[in-house]
Each structure stands twice: as structure tokens, then as C-alpha cells.
Amino acid sequence: MRCTGDIEVRDLEEMAINIDPIQAGGRLTADAMKAVIAYGDGYSVCDNCRKPFRLDRIKRPPLDAFHRDLARFVNLDEARVMPGARRGFQAVADTYVEKGAPVLLTALAHYTEFLAIEAAGGVPREIPKDGRNLVTADAAAGRIEEVTREFGKPPAVLFIDHFDYQFGNEHQVREIARNAHSYDVKVMYNGAYAVGILPVDGKELGVDFVVGSGHKSMASPAPSGILATTAEHARDLFRTTGARGDLTQRQFGVKEVELLGCTLMGATIMGMMASFPHVRERVKRWQEELANGQIVIDALRSIDGTAILSEYPRKHTLTRVDTRNSFDRVAETHKKRGYFFTSALADRGIGGIIPGATRVWKFNTYGLTRLQCEYLASAFTEIARENGIPVG
Amino acid sequence: MRCTGDIEVRDLEEMAINIDPIQAGGRLTADAMKAVIAYGDGYSVCDNCRKPFRLDRIKRPPLDAFHRDLARFVNLDEARVMPGARRGFQAVADTYVEKGAPVLLTALAHYTEFLAIEAAGGVPREIPKDGRNLVTADAAAGRIEEVTREFGKPPAVLFIDHFDYQFGNEHQVREIARNAHSYDVKVMYNGAYAVGILPVDGKELGVDFVVGSGHKSMASPAPSGILATTAEHARDLFRTTGARGDLTQRQFGVKEVELLGCTLMGATIMGMMASFPHVRERVKRWQEELANGQIVIDALRSIDGTAILSEYPRKHTLTRVDTRNSFDRVAETHKKRGYFFTSALADRGIGGIIPGATRVWKFNTYGLTRLQCEYLASAFTEIARENGIPVG
Predict the structure, then answer these.
(1) Which of A27, B44, B59, B144 could form a disulfide with B266 if both were Cys (CB 3.0 to 4.6 A apart)?
(2) Which residues in chain B have their CB less than 8 angstroms from residue A50's CB?
(3) pLDDT, mean over chain A
């Protein structure tokens, strides 16, 4: 069905149970959809922008209060909205990373961290993961020491993903932050898979910067996200411009350099703000989300030859699964080849897995109801049974 | 009226003739609104993202074709979408400006250019404007020579706003570009008030980079914009990542460093794309827009004591006007003081001017019909007459 021109209507969320690994936390709430419709126009939030002319000072709509709410939400002192989590990484890297300086991230770090460091001229160094695909505080401490020896100075920043994008495994953020601080290394917490779906407490974790993604985990339109920090670091990270026109002597007041002034002036921030009351509540139901996800995990584990590659028991709804010895075996001889599996899922109204995937793939049950998870679980075992795979 | 929570419905565009200086070109088309509704969810355009996993390679929705259309639209070789024009300035500055290197911009440059240069560590130097608030090719050449003497090397880049944000004056882009190139200086064209509302031909102007704003001039949600360049410069500006995980040996394929990978993954790019067929047509009607605007300009000029501060005749629909000797005189004794003027406009269904403004202010008639411009013109003269200002 056409939406307009050569654009089709997108109806995945309406027509299917979507288990796409990256889309689950970014579905708009109904309130966000209302706000996006009311504030769709370009600079829609600027109607009542008054001195000092900055997004986070606008009172109508109450963007100023929203910014305070965001800081409180991750329990840090100051927060700003950004065009995606990656732009938060960039702001941190640009502020703290000198050309040629080492920066730590992990063997499971997202590519956008690498790019932010590369753009700032830093040299990325990975903290290894262990055999269970976990990044430990010991590994972090060891790598801080190695890098310090190699460069003659400690890493400028350590980037740590609370839950990584590959396995959805939880890493030792609290302990890593403690170790890093003992070496005087700042800690940048990547909460792209955390902020907005589970409780995040920046002070309790002891991190210096918290980045979250609006379109990944805060039920918001893309690109959106947050960057939060402590009062101490806000002075540098959110520094205001020192630029001056050499002929006109123009200065630019309270505009923040790393934000390039205002960031999200319309639909994106309004979507975030309208979803926020729901987001704030939903993080409290994280255990329920995990319990629902477990129903699906149990089903997959009951299928002969199927392995959960993510840590077990699961601490996140994003999971990596290996079906090379189950569904991929079927694909070898099935007339639809590798497409039999996603096609069988599609027949059951389940979408979000790359067509043809039968080997190693990821899925995310976040936001599905218990009933939907039960349905999904039985769909997996049914497809297995129909194709002669033993289900235990 | 409430939209949701403590968010009011925004109905400025429905309830008033909006002459806000920055909002005119960013009102969504009806098709953009449809697309924003269909693709509101976070990562909505990623349903069919396949290898090599990059926004501008997605075929469904046809983002790949849209990127090619955008390049053609500004007649350059390569284009990318960005989270606002400012992020385009940043990409150019980060790529070409070394720490401490001089960068030229103009006495009428937008603050976001200063911030992009500051973030990259460059030293901004202004090209002066002349007595008519125009930036000439001679002034640019003179400043290139001065700066070259001062720094011992030519400026890394010259930023030029085709139409500036203060007066909406047209500057000598073509001639400035020719001069800059004769000194081997790259030219970054700021088309925030041009791309999407009037014809822009990058090759014909002879510029190296074209930046446009989606939310300012392409009927798109914020933050959005484009960054286009020649095949020659695309290699540097859109360079793909060279980062590698030192332990895992991970590499990140075709992800572009300055874009930090993908930029606009949902409502923003879909709004841009749905508006694009309309935008491509509307630029051809620029002369009509100017003629409609002239009706309002004529009315303001007929009000005793009112001066058009922008160049005259007008070449843009954004205009700066001085009413210190007309409406501001009335404000001195009016019982509503300075608010009488915007209040009288509001009574007539006209919005978009900062409440209380009676001295020097800006307005934009872009997108208004001839009838609306006639109505606006008569509103200004009526308010003048009612308050005893002679209308000639």
C-alpha cells in the first residue's frame, strides 16, 4: 500500500510481532505520535523561544523542565538532547580526546564509538572480553595499565557499553568505573540499550557521562538521544562558545560548542518528551520484560541443537542465538532453502529477522506482552517440530 | 488545548498567517506529514537494511534513489543527509580545518558556522560586509590575502552564506568562489535559506560544498539537512572509517566517519523524502514568492518612518525592517506599550513576530499566497493608520 509517491506505508508494527533487535525500544507511544503530528513542522518548538535563545531554556513547550527531568532520570546533574547517542559519543570524544591520545573501549563496543574516537583523532584500544563474552573490571584495569605504558599516559576516556549490541550481555560497569577512576580515567557509559528500558543511575554506577538513544530505547523518532554528566564535567562538556567575530566583535552567548547550539528543534524532541512519562514508568517493569523474554528463551533452548550465545540466565531482552545445528540443518534440504525459517515466522505474523537468517541471529522481545511472548515461543517450537527437529 | 501531558497542541500554522523569519520554509507538506506518521517509530527505515548496511544504500524505502536525487537537485556529485545544516558545517570543518588554522566566514555568518569552526579548533576570521550589508568578492579576496599574511598560509575553507540570516541579503557567491579558488581556498556554501526554496546549482556557483537545512527550507522535521560535494572532495569528506579493533581486528566497512555512520533513520529522512517532489517544484516558483513578498514590502515602505534594512529591491522573502520611527513611536504612549503592535497583528490572525517587537524585526513571507500577502500588507497599513501613522 502506498503512503505517498514511491513510499510504501510502513505497517510492520501493526501487522506483525516485530522482534527486530534494534527497533524494540524505539516504537513510538501513542502520545509521542500525537506530539509528532502536532509538532511535525521544522522549527516547531521555537514559537516561544526567548532570550537567551537556547533549546533547553524554552518554557513553552516546557523543554526546560524536560531537560531537568532527563538529568534526574539518569541521576546526573545536567542533561542535553542530542541527534542520536553517537552524537553524544562525539561530544565526549571532541572534548576530552587530543589527537593521538589513546581511548579505551571494549571488544564489544558499537562501531559509532570507534567512529567518534576516529573523528576526534584518538587511538582506540579494546578491552578484551572473556570466554563468556563479558567485559570485566580486571580486564579493564589490565588494559588501562598496558595502554598507559604504551602511550606514556592513561587513556583519555573509557567507553563502556552497559549492554552490548552483539549479545545483550551486561558488563561490569560499576566495577570498571571504580577501577578507571583509580587510574584517573573518565568513564563514558553507553546506555543505548539501557536508558529508557531499564533503571539507570549514573551516580550509583559512578560514571562521568551517560549517553542514551531516543530512537533505540526511549520510544522516540530518529535521530534523538541524551547526553548527561555531572556538575563537575558539565563545565567542559557543555562549555559555551568563546568564539568572537574578529571584525564585528560578535559573540554568541550561551550557545554550547559541542551541541552546535540547538539540537532537536521539533518532532524529535517533542516525541521524546511525550513518551517520557511512559518511559519513566516502563523502566520499573524491567523484571517483567525479562520474565516474558525468558518464555521465548526457554522455548529456543528446548529445540534440539539450538544454543543461546548470550550470557545465561538472560539479563537483557536482546539475545543472540545459534541455530546452525537446528534450523540451518533444515535449510540445507528445504525447498525454500534458508528462507524457510523467516518465511514460516512471517506466516505466523512474526517479523524483524533478516530474511534467510538460519545460522546466528539476534532478536529482542522488549515491549511484547506475556501473551505475545508465549505465542512467539510456541511459533519457534512449532516450526522446529514441523521440520523434524526434536523439541525437548 | 492539550496535546498530551503538559504539552499544548501547536496550532500556529492552522490558526494564523505565520511570518516567523525561520519557520517559513520548514512547514511540512501534507505528504511529509503522512510519511512522518507512517515512519514515526525510531529506526523505522531499517526494516530492509541489508549489506553493506548504510542509510544511503537502503532500497526500500528508496533512500538510495533519494540520495542521488538530492545530489542532482543541487547539481553536485554526492549528497548525504545530516541532522541539520550545522552538522554539515561540522563535517566540513572537521575534515579540512587543522587546529590553529584560519577559516574565513563573513560578518553576517550564522553562529553555527562559528561553533563548527571552534569545535574543530580553527580560528575564525570575518570577511567584512559593505555599507549596504553585502559581502563582495573584492572584500573576500582582500581578506584571503590578509589572513594568508597573518597565518603564513591561506584559510583552510571559506564559508559563505548565499542569503544571510540577518538581512536575507544575497551575497556574491559565484564571484567569491572564483576568487577563493584562485587562492586555492575551498568554498563551503551555506544554503540554509536557499536550498529547498530557490534554485541552487553547486557546479554553476563553483562551490565545493553545499549545505542545506531540511527543517529551515525543505519542508522537513528537525533535525535534518543535506551536505553535498563534488566527486573530488567526496573522497575526503565522505571518507569511510579506517578504525580497527586492536584486539578483535574488527573493521567497520563503508561507515562514513564524519556522518558517524547513519544519520537520519526514521521520521526525519522520510519527511524530507516525502516533501522532496514538492520542494523540487516549488523552487521554480521563487520569482512568484518574491513578487508576493513585494506586496508586503510596498505596504511597509508606504508607512511613514518605516525603513527596509535589507537590500532593496528584495531578492529574498526574509526581510529586516526598522519601525523605530513608526510603530515604536506609537508604543511610547500606547496603553499596551510595545505589545500593541504584535497584539494588533494577532487580532488579525497574524503570528510569528516576537511579542513586543516594535523596533527592528524580521519577517518572512515565504509560502504565503498572493491573497495572504495582500491581507498582510493591508494589516500593516491598517494598524499604522489606526494609530495615527501617516501612510503614503
Answers:
(1) B44
(2) 354
(3) 98
A contacts of B4 (beta carbons < 8 Å): 31, 34-35, 274
Report whether pLDDT(A143) > 90: yes
Average pLDDT over residues B316-334: 98
Q: How far is CA B86 from CA A103, A120, B82, in A?
A: 26, 17, 9
Q: Based on the number of CB atoms within 10 Å of its own CB, is B131 exposed (0-12), middle (13-18) or buried (19 or more)? A: exposed
Nearest CA in chain A to B111: A252
Measured N-to-C along each axis, helices A267-282 and B267-282 cross at an angle, to the nearest 10 degrees, of 170
Tell me whether A103 touches chain B (CB under 8 Å): no
Q: Are B76 and B227 in contact (CB under 8 A)?
A: no
Q: Which residue, A258, A141, A9, A124, is CA-closest to B270?
A: A9
Q: Note the pLDDT of residue B34.
A: 97
Q: What is the ipTM of this complex?
A: 0.98
**Residue A36 pLDDT greater than 90, yes or no:** yes
Alpha helices for B45-136 (secondary structure H): 63-73, 85-96, 111-120
Helix-then-strand count for chain B, H and E: 15, 14
**B237 phi and psi angles, rounded to 5 deg:** -65, -40
Nearest alpha-carbon partner for A7 in B61, B241, B19, B128: B61
How far apart (Å, rounded) are the C-alpha atoms in residues A262 and A241?
Answer: 13
Cβ–Cβ contact A35 with B under 8 A: yes
- The residue type of B178 is R
Going edge to edge, which strands form the sheet with B209-213? B78-82, B225-229, B209-213, B186-190, B157-161, B102-106, B123-127
Residue A234, SS3 per DSSP: helix
What's the burial of B68, exposed, middle or buried (CB within 10 Å: 0-12/13-18/19+)? middle
Contact B76, B69 (CB under 8 A): no
Contact at 8 Å (CB) between A114 and B247? no
- pLDDT tens-digit readout, A219-248: 999 999 999 999 999 999 999 999 999 999
Residue B41 to residue A31, Cβ atoms within 8 A: no
The pLDDT assigned to A213 comes to 98
Contact B41 A50 (CB under 8 A): no
Would you state the cell numbers that stand for residue B218, as one nine-digit string? 525543505
pLDDT in tens, B129-168: 999 999 999 999 999 999 999 999 999 999 999 999 999 9
Which of B43, B86, B133 to substitute to test the interface with A, most A CBs within 10 Å?
B43
Nearest-CB residue to A27 (from B11, B41, B268): B41
Residue A249: burial class (beta carbons within 10 Å; 0-12, 13-18, 19+):
exposed
Q: What angle do CA B67, B70, B72 make, to 5 degrees?
A: 115
Q: Which of residues 150-189 of B touch A (CB under 8 A)?
A: none
Measured torsion, CA atoms of residues A84, A86, A91, A97, in degrees rounded to the nearest 10: 180
Closest chain B C-alpha to A37 CA, distance in angstroms:
7
CA B116/CA B124 separation, integer angstroms: 10
Task: Tell which residue, B145, B171, B159, has the closest CA to residue B208.
Answer: B159
